[in-house]
Amino acid sequence: MTRNAALVMLACLGCGEANEPVAARASPPRVLSSPAEAVDLDADPLVVHVRLRAAPALHRIGDSEYPGFAYNGQLPGPTIRARVGDTLVVELENALEFDTTLHWHGLSVPYAMDGVTWQTGAVKPGETFTYSFEVTAAGTFWYHPHFDSERQVDLGLYGALIVEAPTEPALDDELVLIFDSWGEFRAESGSGGHGTPGTRPGALEPALGPLHTNEHTPDPGRWTVNGLVAPAFPSRSGTSLRVRLINASNDDYLDLHWSQIRQIASDQGLLPALQTPERLLLAPGDRAEVEWLLGGDDFGIHAEPYSMHGGVALGESHELLRVETEGSRTAPPAPEWPFSGTAASSDPGSTDIVYVFTGDAGGSDWRINGERYPDVTIEELDLGSTAVLELRNASATEHPFHLHGHAFEVLAVGGVAPAVRMLEDTINVRIGEVVRLRLHADNVGDWMAHCHLLSHAEGGMMTVLRVRP
Ligand code: C2O
Ligand code: CU
User: Fold this and answer.
1) What domain range is 400 assigned to?
2) Checking DSSP bridges between strand 87-94 and strand 103-105, what pairing results, if any?
């Protein structure tokens, strides 16, 4: 299908008025592109220096307006791009009325740069804080506040952080896709009050009814891709793309499906080998990378119904994004990724730390080992040690577990070793499931370990894992 025909069709689908010319429409564009990248202010090729300004912003999501927050007025925030070994310097200006921080989800950074307020302070309104650290691993990461996160992330504070490795081939094009779901909260204008961890500011009210009452079935009106509802991505046949996917939603799972999923990477960079799964499940906080080898056919990226509460997932498959290719060239050959082929570690059978997840679906009391953050027992590991963590989900809903400051290897999911070595920082744990992780404690600090359903984290499902020198 040609691009113009597609635009006309999309416009008509959106407005329901048959003959309105595309150019006259005031609606936001539905042509997708990657989020604009942050400008590197430093001429030194080994230093990436960017500025982010967190400020109130009005988001237009489909036909609704949401008073929210944004970095540099952009939704998603600017993509930060660096290479392994670079020093990343990020000046965060806080132009909000609230404290905030930046957390580098998935990156191993020094504890003082991790953006948590367990021991280090938040960035106050009107202040600027400069984060600076070396980026040590390649992959698709993201950044978001780690203060009053449930609200601040929900209101639009997030962006992609891409770390490139010199050994990876450059494809014809690259696309960053950040998925988010909307309709859970809205901010009232002029809202005041400073959020603290563990409290939900009173300025917010549910916009579409209470959380957790649905089956987290994706609704086409709820999901955005780079801030757009059901956009089209125009491309050319015969081209290869590296596509980086991030689920930035607070509480909604994405069970993605399209023709021929070719997955090259998960949370922590390239996989040991190409995977061709039927579905790609992205829990909140998860990332994946895929390659698109475009022939002449258009195709849709679908979200399948998904139930995080077990049982049958209700609803229908929805198209979140349509890829429209121009021309009729054949698909290009697969690029040569430097896949490591590394075998998975074997499970030593012993267990060093157990985290049991409990809580009731529909409630707001979520616990790890019976405790609610910040009243938690701190587990400790020595720097340089290797430990096995066992996650046990004894609740009636799934939980994406996330650990700061480290990557971990998945040893077993429900007693089964993964087909290929899985290096992750966020791992979904299904109801009743036991997941075993191998952790090399190589970064000193008091690291947050929590559920990345941000309502659960806010509800107490967060603990601290100390790596001592
Ligand atoms: Cu993406 Cu502790 O967070
Ligand atoms: Cu949870």
Assistant:
1) 353-468
2) unpaired
